[in-house]
Amino acid sequence: MKRLFISLYLLISLSFLGLGWTLDALWQQHDDEAELLADAPLMAMAAILKPMSPEQRQQAIATANVNATYPLRLFSADKITLADDGELAPGEVFTTLTNSGRQMQFIRLDQQVLMTGPIDTDPRARLRGLFTLFFYLSLAGVALVWVWPLSRDLKVLKQATEALGQAKWDTRIKLSPRSQVKPLAHTFNEMARHIGALIDNQRHLANAVSHEIRTPLARLKFALALIPNYCREGADETARADFIAGMTEDVKEMESLLQEMLTYASLESAQTGLRQENCDLSALCRQVIDRLQSLSPIPITLDSSVAKLLFTCEPALIERALQNLLTNAQRFAESQILVTLSDEKDRVTIEVKDDGEGIPEEEQRKIFEPFVRSDTSRNNNKGFGLGLAIIKRIAERHHGEILLFSRPGETRFCISLPKRELNRD
Questions:
Q1: What is the per-residue burial (b if ≥16 Cβ within 10 Å, else e) of 116-150?
Q2: Taking the CA of residue 114 as centre, how many other CA atoms within 13 Å lie in the half-sphere pointing to its CB?
Q3: pLDDT tens digits, residue range 258-271?
């Protein structure tokens, strides 16, 4: 908007200055020419009459007045008096106006004064009106040159906004690079892209959740139908306990799915709500490794170049991301898991490597999408496919990224995060 205001201000200012100066110069030239032209006939006639006698002058004037545009008359010098009691200087043209606005001119010839008039003061006076009209039309033309493209682009923006309001999420604005509202169009396109991505993501999540929750819900419905058989008198207590335990597991599975979904949804906004603080990443990694080591016989090794690494982040989210990576590694690793913590110049990286069978190349492109699970033999369709999607969102929330390298016998996930100053506001 500042650019728009400045361009409009400069356009109007420069247009006023340029057109005003040009028209003033033209009009001044016209006035100078008009003044010279107005004096020229009288001075020429005075030059002709000067060597003549008074009688010859009268005769010449009488001849000149026949069908004359400039009527001439001769007076005795003592009959002409100026307003300040001054006298006409020889050879000097004196000009005055009558009450009706017509012009009269006088020039002295010895003891006589030659007068012409009354005549129209400015035969081209109507040109002033034309010049004024031309001035305002020129300003209107300059303003039109600036306003018309702006109006056209704003109309395009209005139509795009209406289309977006009608749920056409693929609406985009294409404007000339020289457009005054190009930054606004860019902002609109980013907004439309983000909204479209959110809508698609929510739709995908809703479809995926309905699919994931269908299986435990169907088992619960089937179990509810069988409750009378297990609760009747004389029923096997062990079978009843196993039956109730199965129902409990189904409920826990749905609770776990909903909790994962809530975590994923809470990370929807990647730029706001970050509760950052200084955290020792080395201590955090050791804490997560110690907690998860008891869940699997496969050893987890920490390789860190520094004993203490302070980093500005949201510790709970970084801990969750590392926990998800280690849980996945424990599921697929054959004999070892290696966690590498690196402190680079402007970034910090956390890498988790396992020696499992690897992720097929065709699955690597979509492995970070929600509800996508690997089809490898060790997976057995476990989990909900939200773990890596949550890690990706955590990395993006910290303005970082997660990278994947996988081949048979080695899989590496690397979380790369830029260093940032702690915001204490």
A1: bbbeebeeeeeeeeeeeeebeeeeeebeeeeeebe
A2: 31
A3: 777 777 777 765 45
Q: Is the pTM of this model over 0.90?
A: no
Task: Name residues whose C-beta falls within 8 Å of residue 377's C-beta, 6 or more positions apart in sequence.
Answer: 357
Q: Which residues neighbour 246 within 8 Å (Cβ) at sequence distance 6 or greater?
A: 219, 223
pLDDT score, position 283: 92
pLDDT for res 270:
47
Confidence class for position 295, pLDDT limits 50, 70, 90:
confident
pLDDT at 168 over 50: yes
Polymer length in residues for the chain: 425
Sheet holding 401-407, edge to edge: 300-304, 337-343, 347-354, 410-418, 401-407
Q: Residue type for 61, please?
A: I
- 66 exposed, middle or buried (CB, 10 Å; 0-12, 13-18, 19+)? exposed
The pLDDT mean for the chain works out to: 78
The tokens of 57 are what?
């002058």
Taking Cα atoms as reference points, which of 1, 2, 8, 24 lies closest to residue 142?
Answer: 8
Question: Where do we find the tokens 């899989």?
Answer: 411
Q: Residue 326 has what pLDDT?
A: 92
- CA–CA separation, 235 and 230 (whole Å): 6
